[in-house]
Amino acid sequence: MTRRSTAFASLLSIVLTSLPVLAQESQVAADLRREREHVADSCGTFAPKAIAGCAYTLTTESPLHIALGSLAPTNGFAFGLAFDEHYTPNEAWRISWSADAVAAPSGAWRSGAYMRLVHTPATAGVVVRQPGTPAPRRPVTPRAFAVLDLFAQTISLKTINYFGQGPDTVESGRAVFGERETVLGVSAVYPLDRVSSLAALHPALLGGVTGRFVSIRAAPSGQAPSIEQRYDDVSAPGLAAQDGFVELREGVRLEPSVANGRLRFNYLLSAQQFRTSAATRASFNRWTLDLRHDIPLYHAVSSTGPRAFNGPNACAQSSSSAACPPVQWSRNRQGTIALRLYASASTTSGDNRVPFYLQPTLGGSDINGDRVLASYQNYRFRGPNVVMLQEGLEHSIWGPFGAYVLAEQGKATESLGSGGLATSTTVGVTLRAGGFPLVNLSFSWGGEGHHIIGAMDTSLLGGSPRPSLY
Description:
Blueprint: H1 3-23, H2 27-42, H3 48-60, E1 64-70, E2 77-90, E3 93-103, E4 109-119, E5 146-162, E6 175-191, E7 203-218, H4 227-230, E8 245-254, E9 257-258, E10 263-275, E11 284-296, E12 335-347, E13 361-362, E14 381-382, E15 385-398, E16 401-413, E17 422-431, E18 439-446, E19 449-456
Antiparallel strand pairs: 1-2, 2-3, 3-4, 4-5, 5-6, 6-7, 7-8, 8-10, 9-10, 10-11, 11-12, 12-15, 13-14, 15-16, 16-17, 17-18, 18-19
Helix pairs in contact: 1-2
């Protein structure tokens, strides 16, 4: 183990040892005592095979574990601690909460607190059958839950690229800026599966309210000038002043499948209203269409996506347990063809403008860590309107390791009808090990050269994503 990993393990052991004494064997104390025993079992020896098991325990165990992952591109890899706990007051509700704080050697950092309330009523319509009676022939679908999220998060980023707006910007126009953003809000997902006429579509209503407080600052960099040295409030709308925003969100999600699950859809249509002071002239609306299509190559497919009952610091397999899944080393074949169409359009009234720091970007990875047009520099294209196509194939290699190939086309513009599509091709490998954060290493090439990206998700595998930063 490295010196840094040893220090984290020692700190975690000290905290786990001392907290139960103060808590007098409450639920938290009991969970910490159990975790201390697990850590002792996993990290008691330093044999080569035990190191991986110890690292997995330290990064996924509940309620206290090491938090790590890649911050927004160009801001480095962050380390810290996370605390996650849950409470089940009755059979109808599961409540979980977590907090974390991480920092990167670059000086960037993030801290947040999250609470999730999941409504888990007893399954209706349970039928008892006599032994030997065949079950009805209908596909088994994931159970939908009503979910309410409350969150508060602050992130401080040292360096973000800005090349101007639209598809005609040039690499030589690069400038950099620093950003600090605090988000406070609540969001909800309400499934409509009980409406019999809509059940086949697996619909759900989405909504939320978020307060956003952004401040832009000069960024010291020896590689590019700071943003205020190259751009002004006209070429970078919102650069002169940033006031707080209230963001309202509404949406509908459809997740049907056909051919007995051999073609799966995940459709999202959402609307956002960003409102701020009249002085900044930055209020706007955004409309988003996200159409995903998955075609499993084999009938049995295990999901590694977010689970409704998990926050970002949890990787539980079920709503009744906090345990993360073990690392699977089987040679079962898994593969999926994925097709995606994404479009986002922003509208304003009067002389309002969409501030540059709330505009989506394409190129490398965006501020949320999502990869689009990965062969280009991070944040390469920025605009109030974006359209993007993705065609990909991912397949398992062995155990938790997988490989994928991805083709992408997209553009970011002030008008969706202007400009052609930039293209990018990517090959990469992934590591999906139990609840350990997804690790992704890729090589991409396209219109402006090539780009190698290595990153680790900031949420545990199976955990929910963190609040969007735009």
